RNA sequence: GGAGCUGUGGUGUAGAUGGUUAACAUAUCGGCCUGUCAAGCCGAAGAUCGCGGGUUCGAGUCCCGUCAGCUCCGCCA
């Protein structure tokens, strides 16, 4: 049965083209002076003729007007220096008592973050007064006229880079936080990245199409944010977890090449790299083929790194099946900047007298080891902590061995004869002074736990250059022990691999999906799949997922119907814009690159959202709040 | 749902083992000061130590609870 295996696009060698071509257009940030369109009312009319940070010695002797915020003030009595800051940077203003008492008196009242417009002459600083730390350090503005446009309360923290303040405070006064140059720089970089994306996609004929923010809740996947409907009391919209269904429907519509920079919403617990609302670069294609999609994505990512970091990224990216990623690195998003691979020990462990190993193997599990180079520095307490960590991650325990001159020092060495110890030591390429860690458990637990420890114990000197990787051949399903049913690993519209179709009935867990993730240095930056474009196959998958005929018709009828009207083979990918930008800026948390982010408890410290609403609003929606349950 | 860490003038911190005027830096305000760029010097004001209980003659410090933030596990197709 045809299930959605994509064919190569025959009519042109797009793949080759994508691999070789470098978009010529550069999306540099243009200084505002060079804007091509003259505004009807001249730009920055009477307050401002130039930007602070863009001035240089070429402007010496020019009469200009600047406007911005008062930064640091250095008051020498009869001479006052002000750092005037605007979006572009900083310019030193000089107020001299000798040049007019009235103006000077006025300047004495200036305080941090006052908004001022000034007029004067750009002058060259004398040699000994040049500030090499400042781009405009060779010049200054001798102020001859000033207008105070607004005053300011003393800000709660310094408006400058590298401040050391509680993030609470920054979030509460985010508008001031964003006034800091490094934060404005992040906004600028993000803007530039998005512009590069739009121009790139446009060059390859992709159409940016908007999809609804108010849509319907779907049973699979993350928890939805719900929005009550006033005209339909008791009914709810859901905010989209992604435009998944709409982009597939756009393929049925014949758009063929779609993309969107789009906000998505998931009501799940947060992390440093997860926000309740986040932005995706969403892409979907028809008649395109997976090779083209990979090349397109690689080209896009490489473009970002080239334009923003000047780094040439090697293409094509490495590809690795999911099973290999798990076996070698214990993760479906392995960090390839360092080796420290997990070592498969099943065949050796079975020869030991160690029950933990042998019984795990008898139960169909796996035994794997991780070599910690120079691990002898670890104390007994460190190892106990690691053991506790392993338990918390779901393992039954963690075995450890000190490799010493005379062999193993370990509570478990008595279960191994000398030859076996030697074999394991040599398989793990261990040397004297190393510590070996072992987990014996279900295969997935073993991989997961050791993969976590691998990251946890990663060497400090990891390679600085980015390691991109495609993880492919994900399983189509996993089994949910709690719900006692199969669940889609990616999403329920993912096409199985054609050669695995026969396994759908006999061994669903063995079926591989046409799904892929794009991984960079241990971070998942995107993922996608070839979709099912056959309504019969789609119905079959729904059934396997435990959705009854009525249920799937009720929830996804529109999709099944659409698929029956000549749906083309299609597939796509979505890239996490926030994560991409955070990687480009080198930030640990995506909150740094989101202008108005939420906290780990999903509240906004600035607006106070979420917040209660008036009773009248609830009445209109026919909603009643439940009393909070009292504790028993 | 669970675990860990953090919470002291506006801000960043110090306050071993409980002991009475809670320290320092910086910002703020006032004074002096014409080449600074984290300007400098002098002075002043500014804190019921996140909140609520408890133990104690006495709590910033110990105990319990609670709130907020951060990080992680679960969760996030």
SSE layout and pairings?
Blueprint: H1 14-20, E1 63-75, E2 79-86, E3 89-96, H2 101-108, E4 115-124, E5 139-150, H3 167-172, H4 174-177, H5 181-203, E6 207-208, E7 226-228, E8 236-238, H6 244-252, E9 257-265, E10 277-286, H7 290-309, E11 318-321, H8 322-329, E12 343-344, H9 346-349, H10 355-362, E13 366-372, H11 380-392, E14 399-404, E15 407-409, H12 418-427, E16 435-441, H13 443-456, E17 468-472, E18 477-480, E19 485-488, H14 503-506, E20 515-520, E21 523-530, H15 535-544, H16 549-563, E22 570-576, H17 577-585, H18 615-621
The chain binds one RNA strand of 77 nucleotides through strand 1, strand 2, strand 3 and helix 3.
Concise summary:
The chain is of the alpha+beta class and 632 residues long. 28% of the residues lie in helices and 22% in strands. The chain is built from 18 helices and 22 strands.
What does this structure look like?
- This protein has 632 residues and is α+β, with helices and mostly antiparallel strands.
- It has 18 helices and 22 strands.
- The protein has an eight-stranded mixed beta sheet with strand order 6-9-10-22-21-20-17-11, with helices on both faces. A five-stranded mixed β-barrel has the order 1-2-3-5-4. It has a five-stranded antiparallel beta sheet with strand order 12-13-16-14-15.
- A hairpin with a 2-residue loop joins strand 2 and strand 3 (89-96).
- Helix 1 packs parallel to helix 7, helix 8 crosses helix 13 (443-456) and helix 15 runs antiparallel to helix 16.
- It is globular.
- The two termini are 57 Å apart.
- The model is unreliable at 1-12 and 21-35 (pLDDT under 50).
- The chain binds one RNA strand of 77 nucleotides through strand 1, strand 2, strand 3 and helix 3.
């Amino acid at each position: 049965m045809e299930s959605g295996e994509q064919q190569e696009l025959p009519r042109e060698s797009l793949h080759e083209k994508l691999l070789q071509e470098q978009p010529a257009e550069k999306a540099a940030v243009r200084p505002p002076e060079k804007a091509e369109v003259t505004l009807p009312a001249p730009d920055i009319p009477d307050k401002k003729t130039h930007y602070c940070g863009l001035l240089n010695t070429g402007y010496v002797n020019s009469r200009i007007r600047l406007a911005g915020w008062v930064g640091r003030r250095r008051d020498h009595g009869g001479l006052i220096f002000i750092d005037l800051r605007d979006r572009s940077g900083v310019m030193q203003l000089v107020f001299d008592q000798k040049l007019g008492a009235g103006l000077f008196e006025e300047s004495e009242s200036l305080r941090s973050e006052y908004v001022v417009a000034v007029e004067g002459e750009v002058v060259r600083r004398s040699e000994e007064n040049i500030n090499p730390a400042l781009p405009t350090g060779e010049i200054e503005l001798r102020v001859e006229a000033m207008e105070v446009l607004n005053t300011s309360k003393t800000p709660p923290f310094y408006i400058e880079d590298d401040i050391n303040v509680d993030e609470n405070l920054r979030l509460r006064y985010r508008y001031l936080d964003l006034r800091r140059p490094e934060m404005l720089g992040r906004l600028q970089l993000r803007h530039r990245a998005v512009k590069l994306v739009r121009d790139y996609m446009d060059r390859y004929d992709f159409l940016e199409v908007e999809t609804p923010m108010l849509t319907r809740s779907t049973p699979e996947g993350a928890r939805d944010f719900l929005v009550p409907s006033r005209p339909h009391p008791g009914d709810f919209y859901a905010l989209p977890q992604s435009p998944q269904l709409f982009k597939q429907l756009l393929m049925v519509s014949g758009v063929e090449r779609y993309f969107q920079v789009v906000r998505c919403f998931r009501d799940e617990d947060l992390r440093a790299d997860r926000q309740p609302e986040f932005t995706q670069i969403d892409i979907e294609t028809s008649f395109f083929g997976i090779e083209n999609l990979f090349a397109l994505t690689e080209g896009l990512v490489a473009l970002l790194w080239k334009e923003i970091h000047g780094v040439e990224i090697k293409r094509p990216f490495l590809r690795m099946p999911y099973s290999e990623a798990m076996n070698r690195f214990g993760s479906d998003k392995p960090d390839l900047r360092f080796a420290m691979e997990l070592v498969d020990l099943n065949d050796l462990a079975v020869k030991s007298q160690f029950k933990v190993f042998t019984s795990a193997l008898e139960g169909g599990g796996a035994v794997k080891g991780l070599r910690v180079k120079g691990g002898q520095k670890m104390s007994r307490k460190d190892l106990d902590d690691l053991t506790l960590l392993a338990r918390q991650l779901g393992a039954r325990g963690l075995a450890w061995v000190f490799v010493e001159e005379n062999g193993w020092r370990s509570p478990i060495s008595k279960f191994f004869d000398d030859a076996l110890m030697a074999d394991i030591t040599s398989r793990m390429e261990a040397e004297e002074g190393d510590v070996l860690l072992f987990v014996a458990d279900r295969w997935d637990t073993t991989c997961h736990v050791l993969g976590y420890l691998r990251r946890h114990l990663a060497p400090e000197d990891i390679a600085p250059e980015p390691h991109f990787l495609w993880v492919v051949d994900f399983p189509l399903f996993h089994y949910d022990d709690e719900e006692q049913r199969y669940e889609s690993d990616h999403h329920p519209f993912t096409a199985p691999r054609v050669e695995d179709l026969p396994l759908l009935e006999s061994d669903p867990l063995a079926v591989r999906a046409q799904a892929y993730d794009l991984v960079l240095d241990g971070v998942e930056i995107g993922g996608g799949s070839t979709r099912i474009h056959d309504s019969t196959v789609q119905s079959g998958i729904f059934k396997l997922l435990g959705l009854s005929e009525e249920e799937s018709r009720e929830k996804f009828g529109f999709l099944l119907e659409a698929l029956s009207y000549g749906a083309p083979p299609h597939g796509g990918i979505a890239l996490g814009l926030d994560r991409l930008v955070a990687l480009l800026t080198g930030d640990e948390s995506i909150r740094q690159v989101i202008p108005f982010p939420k906290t780990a408890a999903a509240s906004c410290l600035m607006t106070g959202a979420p917040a209660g609403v008036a009773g009248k609003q609830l009445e209109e929606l026919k909603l009643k709040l439940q009393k909070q349950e009292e504790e028993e």
